[in-house]
Amino acid sequence: MNSVSTKVALVTGAAKRVGADIVRVLHGAGFDIALHYRGSVAEATALKLELETIRSNSVALFQCDLNQLTEIAPLVQNVLAHFGRLDALVNNASSFYPTPLGEITVDQIQDLFASNAFAPLLLAQAAAPALQKTQGAIVNIVDIYADRPLPRYAPYCMAKAALVAATYALARELGPNVRVNGIAPGNIIWSTNMEKAETPQIVLERTALKRQGGPLDIAATVKFLICDAPYITGQILRVDGGRWLFI
Fold first, then answer.
1. What is 165-187 written as a DSSP string?
2. Residues in a beta bridge with 10
3. What is the pLDDT of residue 3?
4. Where are the domains of the chain?
5. Is the dihedral of CA 70, 71, 72, 78 positive or negative?
6. In whole angstroms, what is the distance from residue 59 CA to residue 31 CA?
7. 3-state DSSP assignment of residue 211
């Protein structure tokens, strides 16, 4: 159980890449962290140990397969049982892979919509009563391609578009006590071996800042929307270095 006065953030998909940096930044801002992961137990454990050398008993791990939608409400209940409060929810967990037209399967559609749309909505629903009590905030990680889909990624882009709609709907339903916003990343570096939808040359030619972003660009924006934007809700903030201008 954390101190009654210490704020708590639940971050999904938080063991590595962008999620891990979101956790580090929020932890540095004074939040205790409910760190969700699906299969990356080693990375989640290492991150917990890293952060607890800074502040003891400030991170708790929660394993859950968000594709199992009936497990989502119990996940939030477990977070509340451990910490006693919730001040922020960051829906970062996401599946991403190409699905060329003509080869799309039902399983792929269900997988991409579960992680990118259904789970964030159900997490927000389950967390809403606790967030109302603390006048908290939700940040959904969407994508610049939710509005103008990438070829070969139709189900993924459709799912992110659904998450954009959910962001707007939740902002209306949960106001005035809970703010809900989204971040639409552009091409963000997170792994040299993860499939990317754009080549470095495309990024250079079609991004106003002529470079990729990094996970800390997203993490800093998450912190801004949670901590420093009390009159911002129902917005999708592009963090893409100007990539949107060239789509």
1. HHHHHHHHHHTTT-EEEEEEE-S
2. 34, 89
3. 54
4. 8-246
5. positive
6. 9
7. coil
Q: How far is CA 147 from the centre of its chain?
A: 18
What is the reported pLDDT for 169? Answer: 98
Question: Residue 45: what are its φ and ψ, rounded to 5°?
Answer: -65, -40
- For residue 69, is it left (φ>0), alpha (ψ between -120 and 50) or beta? alpha
The H or E element spanning position 140 is strand 137-141
Active site amino acids: 156
Place of tokens 């792929």: 108
Residue the block writes with tokens 């919509």: 113
Residues 6+ apart with CB under 8 A from 221: 183, 237, 239
Given this model, what pLDDT does residue 199 score?
78
Residues of the chain with pLDDT under 70: 1-4, 190-197
Q: Which CATH architecture has domain 8-246?
A: 3-Layer(aba) Sandwich (3.40)
Measured CA to CA, the distance from residue 70 to residue 68 in angstroms comes to: 6
CA angle 22/59/69 to nearest 5° reads 70
How far apart (Å, rounded) are the C-alpha atoms in residues 15 and 47? 7
